[in-house]
Amino acid sequence: MRLARGGGGVMALNVAGMAQALLLQILLARLLGHEGYGHFAYVMAWVNILVYLAVMGHDMLMMRNVAAHRARQEWALLAGVLRHAAGLVGGLSIAISALGAFLISRQPGIPAELGATFLAGFVVLPLLAMLRLNAAVLYGQGQVVLGTAPERLGRDAVVLLLVGAATGLSLALTPPAVMGFVAVGGASALALILYLRRRRAVLPVPAPRAVFRRRDWIASAFVLGLTGGSQLLLQRSDVLMIGWLMTAADAGVYVVACNVAELVLFPYLAVGAIVAPSFAAHYARGERTELAAFMRTTTLMTLAGSLVIGIPLIVLAPWILGLFGSEFVDGAGAARILMVGICLRTVIGPSHLMLTMTGHEQQAMRALGCAAAANVALNLVMIPAFGIEGAAAMTTLSLLGSQIAMAAMAWQRVGIPPPLLPRRLLAALAPRDGGPRDAESGG
């Protein structure tokens, strides 16, 4: 089965990337120290949010449209959306970076080291935005390994080499310097993925004359961007609020706990990038039976993989966090809460992908937006009372709520129910406005 073969390849890539990223994080936490790593992690959280703003949903739009236009052989539209997305994301990411750098330079009260880290981060932002966009094109072509490898392995490999060289030369590492290394790694990964895209041409030769539907694309990408931004805010607002309500050092501990917990997500990431364009292509051809089969297979594969990874990590969480330094062991409780939440989310299945890849991104946006707002409100209360464990619990609760709501919407809108959730629960949550509920899904 293509899903199993492709998923296995991306799983192997993710395992290698996981080991490399874990080694890099351990080195940075030890070399930068408790507070220095907190500054670096805090700025990276902001950079990741701004990358989503710069991409503005065009990564999901590209993945969906490349798969759908190729399935229908709509080459002129495909040429148009490729040019449209590259120009818009490139210009917007540079504009956001310039504005951010200006605002930081006008803040006299910000610590010098933190300000310098932010300025270096604004160099990273356009590189990561274009890297994400070009990876989405390869995902839409079904080239998941090629789309994943430059960012998953290439970028961190360059950063790791630069950190090792600086340590070998006895140079003092600072958060701004490490962010500069991330910029070099991002530029290297972007160059590699552009080369791979050239080798795997998405358009026939000779290339057709481009046809543009900018208004439709921007409207759809805007909703997808709000959806992705809401999801990122839902997943990262806790880090920002800990840095605001507590200290940067506490934010550093929590980021490490989140990074360790997110190892449980690798089975989902391994098959999710394969399933997403398949959802779009099957939906474009009206193949609902295949959609249901992909949903079931993906849910079972990701659940099994998450449990295999998650159970040992839950047991070994204090020891793993201790590798980063004794100060980070305090994040074990938060990491365990987040891991349990991720395992529970895999039971629900990829309802978010089902909605966004079938043109129902507005429903996903509403669910994630409400959950993000609830998460911020709950964290305002729980972080002062319970610290990072309170943040982990509220983020887990908000994510679970949004996933269940999107599962109900996917059943009601697309007619594909998640195979492991009780139908009565979904029936109680689904809107009563008609739609293809259970159509051709065997439910």
Automatic annotation (TrEMBL):
Membrane spanning stretches: 12-31, 37-55, 75-104, 116-141, 153-172, 178-196, 217-234, 254-279, 300-321, 333-355
Keyword Transmembrane helix: yes
Keyword set includes Transmembrane: yes
Short name of one Pfam family: Polysacc_synt
Keyword vocabulary terms for this entry: Cell membrane, Membrane, Transmembrane, Transmembrane helix
InterPro entries documented for this protein: Poly_Biosynth_Transport, Polysacc_synth
Membrane topology: Multi-pass membrane protein
Subcellular location: Cell membrane
Protein name per its UniProtKB record: Polysaccharide biosynthesis C-terminal domain-containing protein
